[in-house]
């Protein structure tokens, strides 16, 4: 059976699926047959939720209340970043879904990814680009909190542009998933505030568990789905995975230039705009949607994160090369440090 036959077999259903009762408009169950046995489906759901919890606790452990207050008092950078996050990325997802003529379930998958708040990978990338780390962490925090209202609203608005999607979004499931991000994030902030000595331990342990859990999901999906996983790797989906983060990085940097932010802030806002919370997106697609509807497309966030990371690493490489080979504009005589030794002056360091 080739990929085309797989696609027809697994996606030949009416999207007039009622998310309330699990049946289609004519009272029958949707034509997509879940590829997962019930036990494995529950296991993947559980692991997905665990990954989300661990990620958000680790993210909370990097946040400091005092630094958050400083940026709230001067919110210009955060304001620009929030506008970029919830303005650029959802619009980009909508335009790509329209231009590439994605199907209904593919479009809603891409829209959910585009409407997600910023992810914690942006903090790592901002650090590698010598960005403003305080701004990066505060931006991730603010976008996560604001997503509670912004994400359902944006999904409602953009779904109006697709026939059949007006009532297809499971808002209750998305709201629950967003709450699931805020609670562990608050726990992480509390740990970092009251017992900061445990923050680094939790963050490192969380990263290890995250990697193991991700590999476990990949293995289970590979064994169960087999060749049907290539449905997710259609040219249109790959194009979305490549273009969305790239456009986010580019337009985020451009917007910060328009508002005259300094270099570190520009690089930070670019990373925050292009990096989505993939763990939240995976949890929504896997838990909020019935497997008869979402099918293998819940793996789309894995495709996105590959392109998101690869493009960010490429930008980091070019930035480091620029830093290394750019001509020096400093006068060594002016930047030399001197020390007096026995009434003589010696140069001890030249920067």
TrEMBL record:
Q: What is this protein called?
A: Hepatic sodium/bile acid cotransporter
Cite the source lineage.
Eukaryota, Metazoa, Chordata, Craniata, Vertebrata
Q: Which compartment or compartments is the protein found in?
A: Cell membrane
What the record says about family reads: Belongs to the bile acid:sodium symporter (BASS) (TC 2.A.28) family.
TM ranges are: 43-65, 77-101, 107-129, 136-158, 170-195, 207-231, 237-257, 295-319
What GO molecular functions are on record for this protein?
bile acid:sodium symporter activity
Q: GO cellular component terms?
A: plasma membrane
Catalytic activity annotated for this protein? taurodeoxycholate(out) + 2 Na(+)(out) = taurodeoxycholate(in) + 2 Na(+)(in); glycocholate(out) + 2 Na(+)(out) = glycocholate(in) + 2 Na(+)(in); tauronorcholate(out) + 2 Na(+)(out) = tauronorcholate(in) + 2 Na(+)(in); taurochenodeoxycholate(out) + 2 Na(+)(out) = taurochenodeoxycholate(in) + 2 Na(+)(in)
Membrane topology designation:
Multi-pass membrane protein
Q: Which InterPro entries match?
A: BilAc:Na_symport/Acr3 (IPR002657), Bilac:Na_transpt (IPR004710), Na+/solute_symporter_sf (IPR038770)
Q: What is its main location?
A: membrane
What keywords are annotated for this sequence in UniProt? Cell membrane, Glycoprotein, Ion transport, Lipid transport, Membrane, Sodium, Sodium transport, Symport, Transmembrane, Transmembrane helix, Transport
Explain the purpose of this protein.
As a major transporter of conjugated bile salts from plasma into the hepatocyte, it plays a key role in the enterohepatic circulation of bile salts necessary for the solubilization and absorption of dietary fat and fat-soluble vitamins. It is strictly dependent on the extracellular presence of sodium. It exhibits broad substrate specificity and transports various bile acids, such as taurocholate, cholate, as well as non-bile acid organic compounds, such as estrone sulfate.
């Amino acid at each position: 059976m080739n990929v085309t036959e797989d696609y027809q077999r697994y996606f030949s259903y009416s999207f007039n699926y009622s998310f309330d009762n699990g049946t289609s408009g004519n009272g029958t169950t949707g034509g997509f047959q879940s590829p997962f046995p019930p036990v494995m489906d529950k296991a993947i759901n559980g692991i997905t939720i665990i990954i989300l919890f661990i990620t958000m606790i680790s993210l909370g452990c990097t946040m400091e209340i005092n630094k958050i207050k400083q940026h709230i008092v001067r919110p210009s950078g955060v304001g620009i970043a929030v506008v970029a996050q919830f303005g650029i990325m959802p619009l980009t997802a909508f335009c790509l879904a329209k231009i590439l003529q994605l199907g209904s379930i593919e479009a809603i998958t891409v829209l959910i990814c585009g409407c997600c708040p910023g992810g914690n990978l942006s903090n790592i990338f901002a650090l590698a680009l010598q960005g403003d780390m305080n701004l990066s962490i505060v931006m991730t925090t603010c976008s996560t909190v604001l997503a509670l209202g912004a994400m359902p609203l944006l999904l409602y608005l953009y779904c109006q542009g697709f026939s059949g999607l007006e009532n297809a979004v499971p808002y209750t499931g998305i709201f629950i998933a967003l709450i699931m991000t805020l609670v562990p994030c608050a726990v992480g902030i509390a740990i970092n505030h009251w017992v900061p000595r445990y923050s680094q331990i939790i963050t490192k342990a969380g990263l290890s568990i995250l990697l193991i859990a991700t590999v476990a999901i990949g293995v289970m999906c590979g064994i169960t789905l087999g060749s049907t996983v290539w449905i997710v790797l259609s040219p249109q989906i790959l194009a979305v995975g490549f273009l969305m983060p790239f456009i986010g990085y580019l337009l985020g940097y451009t917007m910060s230039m328009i508002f005259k932010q300094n270099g570190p802030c520009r690089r930070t806002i670019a990373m925050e705009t292009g990096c989505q919370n993939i763990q939240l997106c995976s949890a929504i697609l896997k838990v909020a949607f019935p497997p008869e509807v979402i099918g293998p497309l819940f793996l789309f966030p894995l495709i996105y994160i590959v392109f998101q990371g690869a493009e960010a690493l490429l930008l980091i490489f070019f930035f480091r090369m620029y830093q290394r080979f750019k001509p020096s504009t400093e006068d060594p005589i002016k930047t030399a440090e001197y020390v007096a030794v026995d009434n003589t002056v010696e140069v001890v360091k030249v920067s």
